[in-house]
Amino acid sequence: MTRTRTRTRRKVAVVGVSLSDCGRVDEATPYALHAQAARRALADSGLDRTVVDGIASAGLGTLAPVEVAEYLGLRPTWVDSTSVGGSTWEVMAAHAADAIAAGHANAVLLVYGSTARADIKAGRRTGNLSFGARGPLQFEVPYGHTLIAKYAMAARRHMHEYGTTLEQLASVAVQARANAALNPDAMFRDPITVDDVLSGPMIADPFTKLHCCIRSDGGAAVLLAAEEYVQDCRTTPVRILGTGEHVSHTTMSEWPDFTVSPAAVSGRTAFRRAGVAPQDIDFAEIYDAFTYMTLVTLEDLGFCEKGEGGEFVAKGRLKVAGGDFPVNTDGGGLSAQHPGMRGLFLLVEAVRQLRGEAGPRQVHRPNGHLPELAVASGTGGWFCSSGTVVLGRGMS
């Protein structure tokens, strides 16, 4: 009788994180921002680059992970090029964690860089009004549905169903800016008011300019490694406790309910796999290309009941200073930086908070101790996809 040996799954930790230069970066290429973020993340970890045997990248070039790996001088034996918009990096983190746990890789680098702002300023590209007109999108493009308009329609539906107000949505932007004021690296730090948000130029009803994310340059990198490498690292490990991913739709006609995002599934899965509940989480990093995304994702992750998001966010509880459930502690895509698929920035900020390295914007538990549990939840497309990652400080 032949017996099959069951291999013990390894624990996985984030051991290095970093951002490249962000905000207004006129002279760098996207490749340079990838490299800068990667070098900084490796330095943050204390590990040698020869340990890295996996790479995950999307959004650059024809063969994203191949081109980026070559530029970085890496020859990985595990790659991922999953591209599902803003949720890409949470989904990639899930794939990388599974690969490391199973022994298919030892250390995986997630890396991203974009000069979205500089390219427009220099005339190298224009603002994207559509993702294309092929496939199922051909049935919507003739009617003028832009990405922003799709989010705006979803927000209007939530307002209709649950009485959510413009003032409540505006308060999300105000609190994001308050958090950005504590972040010296945030692109916009001057305080704003609800009136400032409501009186701004209309972009797509009900979104005025300040309801929408900023456009910046920047890059980020996250290094995940197996537990046996942690002892060689210079930083406090942050363990990947549970992950979840879900895709919902691509055409709006196939979205059953505009008030429910795919985070309702990915979040539930991530919490179950992590063995924790929403009430255990100390803070959240949520993809916020628009104010409505923050509100509805908070509902769908279970931090408040469906339809109660407006009241939840209007109480000022999302702020680092004075709030009881800090969200987007760096200022988010609404104020800190948003160079495109921003999901990797959520992971960087979550790790820095759990390690106690966030400076003036550092989150503390009510007892004054550092936070122990965080969730990062990315959204892609127009609520088409979601990836959720639950993280915990230490390896226990």
From TrEMBL:
SUPFAM superfamilies: Thiolase-like (SSF53901). InterPro entries: Thiolase, Thiolase-like, Thiolase_C_2. Pfam families: Thiolase_C_1. Residues 244-393 form the Thiolase C-terminal domain. PANTHER family: ACETYL-COA C-ACETYLTRANSFERASE (PTHR42870), NON-SPECIFIC LIPID-TRANSFER PROTEIN-LIKE 2 (PTHR42870:SF1). This is Acetyl-CoA acetyltransferase. It comes from Streptomyces phaeochromogenes.
